């Protein structure tokens, strides 16, 4: 019998499998994927040193055995094959990546396809997601890499090129050119990011656009847009916004009498004032990502007599063509009547192209947390709203071109809840903006009882991100992100898009240099240095290559702790603690942290420090044993009595208390092991099976 170990969250051990044939048959898996599963179950394929989750199989090609499989791919007669197994000469990209390279398969993921089609029209954005230089020829090893924006960072996703097929045909996204595979592999990479192909069955185009651009997306009702719609659209396009539109009134992807498909995503790519023999007309240019089925009303490519009133020179200026290629012009009034919703993805200066006439928004990012009993105050209707995180918002740069009588500053606020869907929890979230106190940056409970918001979300929403667009006179304001209910655990990303020169900072930073614990909404501010100071510490203690190893982290944390309210706790910090923190946060498998890795660790340390200080009731810089379980619960981890007994035996000091460094170490270990279990438990069954070598790797590199 092959060595394997099955672990269940319920504590039971399912039977061990003697042979791969008891798991699947050749009808379900292609030759490559059969070897993949056989290797996985036999233990002959395990992560190399460093913990990479993707490995080289017996045929020398890259295999990603952590790709989440689902029922959709395990149907009868579905085979997983590499392009070289069913295509004589596969190519990654043929004659450039274009909107025409996207053809929907057996998934209801046109929402993703419309985002990919829009992306392909912007070379700079496309190359951010689809790195250049990948091929099925020189250097081919079965591995392809893509990048997606996730919560403020670009995350690299590596996949193998095993694709689900039936009768040697791709069953999901494909290119009309049978030799081209960039779009199919991009779909697979996005599926891995989201939890498998099954996670792509229905979704929101604007969420896909955010993940592929790092922009901020909002959904607008076209009937409620300003009367001067051409000016509004020009303003969006001038900032580089990507615009999708749809009519949601009819049957899925059925045509209206004038050729517009219902519940199908189109792209709006231009708005122009066109000179005709009878005056000027405002037209918009629309693109159907399918590349056919066009508008057949006024100004249509093939049937529009209106073009006879436009000079050839003017038509050439608009690049007008007489063919059904999916791109067409229509009047603004017809646009209003034939489209219902518009999804706008606003780009930020981080994505802007140097030398371009496009002027994207300036973007400020803030990562934050709602911590029960600390910074999770709930809605304004409750009595603890003031406890929510607060951000000071300074508006000084008036919109360019604004009339003197209306000097206002436009902005967009975007509040995104992080990692919630993976946990199966969708918090209801909202944003409120208040006039700031004339002297203090932080609004107290008394202040908020007297003030009404100058701008707020219309309601609490469980969407991944809520967006609030506004325009206010120059001045100082406070942004408060909140959940509908108090004491809900969650992480969030707040993005503030403004004209360059306006700022947004955590509200406490405008107060005294060293605030007292009573004045701040984040207790870690009196215990730890600021993020800017921490960055200086990182540069001071890391090596010449800007990497932080365990000894560097040990020295850094000692210096960080010594200067705050937890001074003295550093004597409990051991090098072994730091070794574990490094390997548990290490994304490269090299036992060292780069700056993004360290930032992620520091975010956890700040959040867990808040919890430690709240539950350290007697301020001894230690948690009593009975305080540990509630503190873990506040961090989102619920454990039973058996685990608490093990905590008492393994992680406490001789007097059964847990020091501050010991608490950080305990939370890091628990969170890491829970995430590892969830990564293996791909279908959420509460039980996992790992090979003998995988088990040793998981426990030894920890």
* Helix-strand makeup class: alpha+beta
Number of strands: 26
Strand content: 15-25%
Q: Compute the average pLDDT.
A: 80
Helical proportion, percent range: 25-40%
Radius of gyration: 28 Å
- Uncertain runs with pLDDT below 50, 5 residues or more? 1-54, 508-521
Which outline best applies?
globular
Question: What separation lies between the terminal Cα atoms?
Answer: 28 Å
Main sheet, how many strands, which sense, barrel? 6 strands, antiparallel
Strand order, largest beta sheet: 9-14-10-11-12-13
**Number of DSSP helices?**
18
General description of the model:
By secondary structure, the protein is of the alpha+beta class. 27% of the residues lie in helices and 21% in strands. It contains 18 helices and 26 strands. A six-stranded antiparallel beta sheet has the order 9-14-10-11-12-13. A five-stranded antiparallel beta sheet has the order 19-18-21-16-23, with no helix packed on it. It has a four-stranded antiparallel beta sheet with strand order 15-22-17-20, with no helix packed on it. Helix 3 (110-120) packs parallel to helix 6 and helix 13 packs parallel to helix 17 (660-680). The longest helix is centred in the last third of the chain and has 21 residues, at 595-615. The radius of gyration is 28 Å and the shape is globular. The two termini are 28 Å apart.
């Amino acid at each position: 019998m092959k060595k394997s170990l099955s672990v269940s969250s319920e504590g039971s051990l399912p039977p061990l499998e003697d042979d791969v044939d008891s798991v699947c048959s050749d009808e379900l898996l292609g030759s490559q994927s059969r070897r993949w599963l056989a290797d996985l179950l036999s233990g002959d394929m395990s992560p190399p040193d460093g913990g990479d989750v993707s490995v080289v199989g017996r045929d020398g090609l890259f295999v990603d055995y952590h790709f989440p499989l689902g029922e959709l791919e395990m149907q009868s007669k579905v085979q997983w094959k590499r392009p070289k197994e069913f295509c004589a000469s596969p190519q990654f990209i043929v004659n450039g990546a274009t909107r025409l390279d996207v053809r929907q398969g057996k998934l209801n993921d046109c929402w993703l396809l419309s985002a990919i089609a829009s992306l392909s029209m912007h070379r700079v954005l496309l190359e951010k997601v689809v790195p250049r230089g990948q091929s099925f020829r020189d250097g081919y090893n079965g591995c392809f890499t893509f990048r997606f924006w996730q919560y403020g960072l670009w995350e690299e996703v590596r996949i193998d090129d095993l694709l689900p097929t039936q009768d040697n045909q791709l069953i999901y996204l494909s290119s009309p050119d049978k030799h081209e595979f960039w779009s199919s592999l991009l779909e697979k990479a996005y599926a891995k990011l989201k939890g498998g192909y099954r996670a792509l069955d229905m979704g929101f185009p604007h969420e896909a656009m955010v993940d592929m651009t790092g922009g901020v997306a909002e959904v607008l009702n076209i009937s409620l847009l300003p009367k001067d719609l051409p000016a509004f659209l020009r303003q969006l396009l001038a900032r580089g916004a990507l615009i999708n539109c749809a009519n949601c009134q009819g049957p899925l992807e059925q045509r209206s009498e004038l050729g517009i498909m219902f519940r199908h995503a189109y792209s709006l790519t231009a708005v122009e004032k066109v000179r005709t023999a009878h005056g000027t007309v405002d037209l918009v240019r629309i693109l159907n990502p399918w590349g056919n089925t066009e508008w057949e009303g006024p100004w249509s490519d093939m049937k529009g007599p209106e073009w006879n009133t436009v000079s050839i020179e003017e038509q050439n200026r608009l690049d007008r063509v007489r063919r059904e290629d999916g791109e067409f012009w229509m009047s603004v009034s017809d646009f209003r009547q034939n489209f219902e919703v518009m999804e706008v993805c606003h780009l930020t200066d981080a994505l802007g192209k140097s030398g371009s006439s496009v002027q994207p928004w300036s973007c400020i990012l803030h990562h934050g947390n709602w911590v029960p009993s600390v910074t999770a105050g709930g809605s304004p209707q409750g009595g603890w709203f003031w406890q929510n995180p607060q951000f000071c918002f300074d508006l000084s740069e008036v919109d360019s071109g604004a009339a003197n009588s209306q000097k206002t500053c436009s902005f967009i606020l975007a509040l995104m809840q992080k990692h919630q869907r993976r946990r199966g929890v969708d918090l209801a979230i909202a944003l409120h903006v208040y006039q700031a106190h004339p002297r203090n940056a932080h609004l107290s409970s008394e202040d908020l009882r007297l003030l009404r918001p100058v701008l707020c979300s219309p309601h609490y929403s469980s969407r991944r991100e809520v967006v609030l667009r506004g325009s206010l006179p120059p001045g100082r304001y406070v942004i408060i992100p909140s959940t509908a209910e108090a004491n809900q655990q969650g992480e969030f990303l707040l993005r503030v898009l403004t004209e360059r020169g306006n700022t947004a900072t955590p509200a406490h930073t405008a107060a005294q240099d060293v605030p007292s614990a009573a004045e701040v909404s984040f207790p870690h501010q009196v215990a730890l240095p600021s993020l800017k100071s921490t960055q200086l510490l990182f540069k001071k203690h890391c090596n010449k290559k800007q990497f932080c190893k365990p000894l560097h982290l040990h020295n850094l944390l000692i210096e960080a702790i010594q200067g705050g309210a937890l001074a003295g706790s550093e004597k409990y910090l051991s090098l072994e603690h730091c070794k574990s923190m490094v390997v548990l946060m290490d994304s490269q498998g090299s036992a060292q942290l780069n700056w993004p890795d360290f930032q992620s660790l520091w975010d956890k340390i700040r959040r867990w420090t808040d919890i430690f200080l709240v539950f350290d009731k007697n301020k001894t810089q230690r948690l009593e044993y009975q305080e540990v379980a509630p503190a873990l619960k506040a961090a989102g981890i619920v454990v039973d009595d058996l685990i608490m007994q093990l905590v008492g035996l393994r992680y406490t000091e001789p007097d059964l208390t847990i020091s501050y460094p010991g608490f950080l170490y305990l939370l890091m270990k628990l969170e890491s092991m829970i995430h590892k279990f969830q990564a293996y438990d791909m279908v959420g069954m509460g039980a996992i099976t790992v090979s003998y070598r995988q088990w040793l790797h998981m426990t030894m590199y920890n």
